[in-house]
Each structure stands twice: as structure tokens, then as C-alpha cells.
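Usage

Read records sequentially. Each one opens with the input sequence:
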Amino acid sequence: MTAPTIFSQRLLRKGPLVEETYRLFAGWDLSVAMEDNLAQGLRGIFRSLGWEREVVTTISRRLKHFDLLMPLVVLAERGLPLLDWRDCWRLWIGATEQPFGRFALDWLYDEYQSGRYHLNSEDVRELAKDAWAAQNPQKPLSDYGVQRTARDLLKTAGDLGMLSGNGPIKTFAPITMSNDVFLFYVHQIAGFEGTYTKVPSSKYWRLAYMGPEDVHRTLLRLHQYRKLDYQIAGTFVQLTLPQKSALGFAESITS
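and closes with the structure output:
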């Protein structure tokens, strides 16, 4: 399963809506239509009808590939703690939504690796312009659009637990995942990559600030605890997972 990707100003501007989506998924009823779930799960909880419509429209756009979102629905339905669920949601957002994916997987991860401590929207302006130009070469962003996109990229990273700080200056937030969340990443990334052999070196681990060596060490540790089977000899990798899919694993850890 290749991760479906979408370039959307709306999704970036409105943000990942972590708590709203978690609440919606936690109460999801597969026996009724999607529109009914949206109405039942989100009606009457916002400060205004206008904002409610914005949230419903934004989340509806993310539900285009609803069948692929079922692991995240199951995790919320069965009570995975919100912050753990947010870590799983971050993987989905980073893998499927642009320009945030490009920002998080390439620019932000490289800055983290360089040892940088502070950053602000001015630092992200060039990436915002380049990402937009790659998608819309005939329609450049206005100066305000560049600044707004840069701010939205930082805010989304903050909402997803990658950055901290309430003001314009942000710092990198520590990311610590439980064993279950790490194993969910393994299953989901195997699905995104189409093979388990690419899991240890996958770029998607960058969404947790992890490089191949970090992943390798954690896989070895979980192998020792018999959470999975991880064998490596030179370039040969054998990884046997507890479940056949991210959905199967989601069902197993929240039962």
C-alpha cells in the first residue's frame, strides 16, 4: 500500500485537528454513513457554527481514503491514549499530506540532526516557496502566502508533537514512543513501503526524529524481548512482524 498523497492549503492551514479527529474516530459507527458519523461526532462541540463547518469540511477531505485510515479508527475506538494516538496520526499526516511531508521529512529532520535548537517562520520561507512552486509553477505565492505557509508548517509540527513553544520561536520537542506505538510504526511503514525489508531504512522514521541506526537499535531491543523477529546479516534483512497489517496490529494492542 503506497501512501496516498495530497497537496492541500486547506489541510495545512486548518492543521491536523488531533483532538477533534481522535474524538470522531473514538465514536465511529461503521453501521451508519460517513456523513452521519461526522454529524454525531462533531456537532455542537465548537465555539461557532462557522468553525464547526470548517472542521467538518477539513476532516471530510482527510477521509477520502477512509479504508486506509481504519487502523487509526480502531486505535481511537479502543482507547489508545491521546498522545500515543497523536504519534500514530503524525505518521499518517507526514506520509500523505504536502507540503507538510516535505517539510518534516526533509528540512525539519535535517535541522534536528544538525543540532539546531531554535527556529522560526523566517527560517522556513524558502522551503514554503519551493514546495509551492513545485506544485504550482505558474502561480507563485504572495509574500503573505509564503509567511502564512511557513507559520502553518511550524504550527502543524507543534500540534503533532515535533516542536514546542507557544510564541514565534520554536524548539525541537523530544519524541518518546512506547513499544506499542513503535511497533505500530513498523507495521504501517511496511505497508507504506510495500515490503518489510525497507522498514529499517525508511524515511518515514524521520517523523519520530529517528534515523536508520536508531531504528536498528530499537528493533534489536524488541527482538530480545520477543516482540518481533529481526535478523540482519550484511545487506540481508529478515523482519517477522506480530501481525500481517497495521490494522491487525491496532486490533491486537487495544483489545
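Summary fields computed downstream for this record:
- The longest helix spans residues 143-159.
- Residues 16 and 156 are 6 Å apart (CA to CA).
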